[in-house]
Design a protein that fits this description.
With about 120 residues, the protein is mainly α. Helix content is about 50%, strand content about 0%.
């Protein structure tokens, strides 16, 4: 990859490669890190050691965050319905809200992971 970028830079120039590859790469990675941080860090989330960790515990160590209308449409529900993504990663996000509502009763009374946190409570 680096060799290809170097060759493209020698042919097209540094500014072209920066605009066509560098800035989009930084933008995408910025959002990947931001989404991962938002849904996987909160004081109420439990942390497990190797001997007590299970798949379900790990999947439920995320949290749904409410990011408003823009977040719901821009991220296709990824932030608002993130716990279901960890429990069932093959469910498409356009079914995430429906799946979240269906799984809540099976996990017991109102798990805190499904509480939509707003900016004031986070």
């Amino acid at each position: 990859m680096l060799l290809g970028l170097w060759k493209a830079t020698t042919v097209l120039g540094y500014s072209t490669i920066l605009l066509a590859y560098g800035i989009p790469w930084l933008w995408i990675n910025h959002w990947l890190i931001a989404v991962a941080f938002m849904n996987h860090t909160h004081p109420s989330l439990l942390h497990y050691n190797d001997s007590s960790w299970t798949f379900i515990d790990g999947a439920l160590s995320t949290i749904d965050r409410h990011c408003g209308l823009i977040g719901l449409h821009m991220f296709h529900g990824l932030l608002d319905y993130h716990v279901i993504h960890h429990l069932f990663p093959r469910i498409p996000f356009y079914h995430a809200e429906e799946a979240t509502m269906a799984i809540k009763p099976l996990l017991g009374a109102s798990p805190s992971n499904f509480t939509k946190l707003d900016r004031q409570s986070a």
